Amino acid sequence: MTRFALGDSRMKLALRVVLVVAIVLIIVVGVAAVKVLGPRAFLGPRSRSLTSLTFEVTPRRLARGKYLASSIGCLYCHSPHDWSQHDDPILPGMTGAGQQLPYTDLPGKVFAPNLTPDKDTGAGNWTDDMLARAIREGIGHDGRALFGIMPFAHYRSMPDEDLASIIVYFRSLPPARNVLPKTEIIFPVKYIMQNDPQPLTAAVPVPDISDPVKRGSFLVNLIGCADCHTPVDNHHMPIPGMEFSGGQIFQTPWGTVASANLTPDPSGIPYYDEGMFIKAMRTGAVGARELNKTMPWSVLGNMTDEDLAGIFAYLKTRKPVSHHVDNTEPPTLCPLEGAMHGAGNQNRKQ
Ligand code: HEC
Ligand code: HEC
Questions:
Q1: What is the pLDDT of residues 22-52, one digit of tens each?
Q2: Residues 103, 225: one domain?
Q3: How far is CA 345 from the centre of its chain?
Q4: Distance 95 CA to ligand 1 centre (A)
């Protein structure tokens, strides 16, 4: 009897120890998972409720929306192109109809959805506020967190009137049927990216673009030139102090290419003048050298002279960063970013 009771309480103790250890383990693993993946991996993305907001169609909005969609990047990603031609024309009748993004180094299969008013395969059944929330806040029509290659973090600074114009323009496109699968992002990125969307609850006013540098600063940040033109570490994070100095490496159907150093350093583009810059953006060529299609000049070159001149004026004010990048040379190890690109071996750590 006593022996049995003793065994029983030992058993209870053992069970209790196992239970405590299990709870501690669950907490440790849970805390680690929240630390690595972020709290929103478990809670779902931050989002606001949809409103019944609608945007009135005006000729001014249609024109402004068309200009923005064709020059800041929307139509580049959200339309299928004939990549065999130099200027990547959109397939006839398919403006805004979506496509699989062509880059081969993405963490999954990424589709830019059909935004034409087609009811079956496009945005025909989505409300204006679904589109508005997606563009500036990163939440899709169905409530999912959008993968950040859709530059919603940049578009957050898009003034209300420009947002309205873009939506009015997409709504005016001829509906195009184009069945596309859903984006599929791999683990752990698909959880980590749930932390990125941020609701907007206040109006976004028109920025101060009263001089070329201010205009350029606004546009460069809206478009996100630095996302491509800043080198990244092996966690794909921008390397501090090297903004706009190029050398980020892309694997694309058009070969492996590194972005260019756009700073005024001797290793950047000190020899550019405004005319040469506008010509490069319009033609996709610098003298006889054709730019790799990863540089989306075929849309960015649709900007007006005033907008492009502003971008150039802003780039000239950037901090010079010594970083040799030359895609016409064979890839060599660059000690500044620990990756291989043309002229990498000409760089020295300070
Ligand atoms: C670099 C490529 C790229 C650019 C530039 C881009 N998008 Fe996107 N966009 C995407 C991708 C990819 C998705 C889908 C992401 C996902 O499914 O996680 C998306 C999603 C969206 C959605 C959400 C669709 C839905 O399912 O609810 C809207 C709306 C949208 N984009 C509008 C725009 C507008 C307007 C612009 C220009 C101001 C723009 N995009 C520029 C790639 C891009
Ligand atoms: C999707 C990534 C991407 C984006 C966005 C992007 N670029 Fe580029 N850009 C590149 C790559 C890659 C190259 C290198 C092309 C080559 O060497 O063939 C390049 C090259 C250039 C060049 C040519 C420099 C030279 O003389 O070799 C200029 C100028 C330029 N980009 C300006 C810009 C500006 C301004 C923006 C924003 C308005 C921008 N780029 C946005 C990827 C990008």
A1: 999 899 888 888 888 999 988 999 999 999 9
A2: no
A3: 29
A4: 14
Does the beta carbon of 300 lie inside 6 Å of ligand 2?
yes
Q: Answer left, alpha or beta for residue 79, where phi above 0 means left and psi between -120 and 50 means alpha.
A: beta
Alpha carbon of 125 to ligand 2 centroid (Å) = 36
257 lines ligand 2 (CB under 6 A): yes
Whose CA is closest to atom 14 on ligand 1? Answer: 112
Distance CA 229, CA 247 (A): 7
* Total domains present in the chain: 2
Residues 223 and 186 in one domain: no
Which ligand is in closest contact with the Cα of 267? 2
Residue-number span of the structural domain to which 281 is assigned: 212-346
Ligand lying nearest the CA atom of residue 223? 2
Residue 219: is its pLDDT beyond 70?
yes
Within a domain: residue 283? yes
The string of pLDDT tens digits covering residues 105-152 is: 899 999 999 999 999 999 999 999 999 999 999 999 999 999 999 999
Whether residue 254 is contained in a domain is answered as yes
Q: Are residues 181 and 75 in the same domain?
A: yes
Query: Are 90 and 75 contacting, i.e. CB atoms less than 8 angstroms apart?
Result: yes
pTM above the 0.90 mark? yes
